Amino acid sequence: MSTWSPRSWRGLPIRQQPEYEDPLAVGAVLQQVSALPPLVHAGEVLALRSQLAEAGLGRRFVLQGGDCAERFQDLNAEAIESKLKILLQMSVVLTWGAQTPVVRVARMAGQFAKPRSRATEQVDGQDVLTYRGDHINGHAPDQRRADPQRMLRAYFHSSTTLNYARALLDGGFADLHAPEHWNLDFVRQPERREQYTQMLARLREAVGFMEAVGGRQETLRSVDLYTSHEGLLLPYEEALTRRVGSRWFNLGAHMLWIGDRTRALGGAHLEYFRGIANPIGVKVGPTMQPDELIALLELLDPEDEPGRVTLITRYGAGRVSELLPGHIAAVRSTGRSVTWSCDPMHGNTHSTPGGLKTRDFEAIRAELRGAFDAHRQAGSVLGGVHFELTGEDVTECIGGPQGLSAEDLSRSYETFCDPRLNYAQSLEVAFLIARRLQADRGRS
For 217-237, how does the pLDDT look when each residue is reduced to its tens digit (9 = 90+)? Predict the structure, then answer.
């Protein structure tokens, strides 16, 4: 294997990168980013690796979630608070409902770029460059030129988000089991509202008991929250790569993942990712062949280090039972240690006749159920889930406890990229997962 450096990816085939008009301006911005302080600490990165390793053994459960693509315009206290609120409330349900310690990994403070299927798109009858996320260009049709200054803006938006999130958690914002922080208005059926009310009462009792006996490690008064994003824009990721001791870390986030569109063997993204010490997520979709998966693991994790690689499967509800068993078998044939996670969002996207992208809550639920079933039947462990979600009352996915239909989507459709679960749907899916974990692990 060739010698690695943060720049060794340059010159290799690369996908999903913007075309900047002025290379000198790009270089100047990257030089500024490389001189700025790290956003996270290497010790935090290693702590997350340790917790992911435990999740791979079934001793913890990973809850990874957040925006499809963060927007600069959402940098405000209310938006950050709502993201933390839903992640922490979901983790309360999983921690106490399934009696399982939760690893909280937010798609937050850096998820500003998105891969896209086409270089251009139609807007008001005009062919314009595709919006690739605020990290690269603007959503307005007249802002589609790739602007290198946006990399600096992304850094400072990430820094500000992290700063406020840490302040909220350190200041007691995590005390979300208090009744006033929960919103059951979304439950329309009286019998279900009563069921949820009783479940939340039991959760509060459990949290209060553990705190009374000193179990602070597993309460939400002592919260570890890690950040993650797709490592897509490699020049920017390189600028945030720093040497700590004998190892290189990307200190722009605790965890990064490689998308389904950029995981090509021999490509620039795999070359960059193989050299950083961060835990790495890899999206595994229908086009991933078992032998390709084995080769990818050998490249990214030659020493077979627990917690190093999380395989995030995303097939679609109709194909999870067909494809996941083969991927599990391929990994098990090597004897390697990986952490498995399920992304039930990306394989279940479709467009309405009016052109809005959406996802059906029942399809999301079906893929989750299929992933749990496949792992149980193979004697494997599903160690986590990966969602695109928000704490707001958006209407982007149909179904769920509110019974949203295609006619409801336009009421509050805010995403610029992919549809997200709203507050009600997110909390509902947390209860579903908790029940399944209870059943699979024989807990009451």
Answer: 444 445 689 999 999 999 999
CATH number, domain containing residue 256:
3.20.20.70
Q: Calculate the average pLDDT of the chain.
A: 91
- For residue 377, being part of any structural domain is answered with yes
Q: What is the CA radius of gyration of the chain?
A: 21
Position with higher pLDDT, 369 vs 171: 369
Report how far apart, in Å, the C-alpha atoms of 373 and of each of 197, 233, 381, 382, 433 are: 29, 36, 10, 9, 12
Domain around 57: 23-441
Tell me the pTM.
0.93
Chain segment 234-250, per-residue pLDDT in tens: 999 999 999 999 999 99
pLDDT by residue (tens digit) across 143-199? 999 999 999 999 999 999 999 999 988 876 656 656 567 777 766 667 767 777 777
Do the domain assignments include residue 17? no
The three state secondary structure string of the chain is CCCCCCCCCCCCCCCCCCCCCCHHHHHHHHHHHHHCCCCCCHHHHHHHHHHHHHHHCCCCEEEEEECCCCCHHHCCHHHHHHHHHHHHHHHHHHHHHCCCCEEEEEECCCCCCCCCCCCEEEECCEEEECCCCCCCCCCCHHHCCCCCHHHHHHHHHHHHHHHHHHHHHHCCCCCCCCHHHCCCCCCCCHHHHHHHHHHHHHHHHHHHHHHHCCCHHHCCCCCCEEEEEECCCHHHHHHCEEEECCEEEECCCCEEEECCCCCCCCCHHHHHHCCECCCEEEEECCCCCHHHHHHHHHHHCCCCCCCCEEEEECCCCCCHHHHHHHHHHHHHHHCCCCEEEECCCHHHEEECCCCCEEEEHHHHHHHHHHHHHHHHHHCCCEEEEEEEECCCCCCCCEECCCCECHHHHHHCCCCCCCCCECHHHHHHHHHHHHHHHHHHHCCC
Q: How far apart are CA 85 and CA 72, in angstroms?
A: 20
Does residue 16 belong to any structural domain of this protein?
no
Contact 359, 367 (CB under 8 A): no
Number of domains in the chain: 1
The residue count for the chain: 444
Q: Do the domain assignments include residue 15?
A: no
Instruction: Give the span between the Cα atoms of 103 and 223, in whole angstroms.
Output: 10
Task: Count other Cβ atoms within 10 Å, centred on residue 76.
Answer: 9
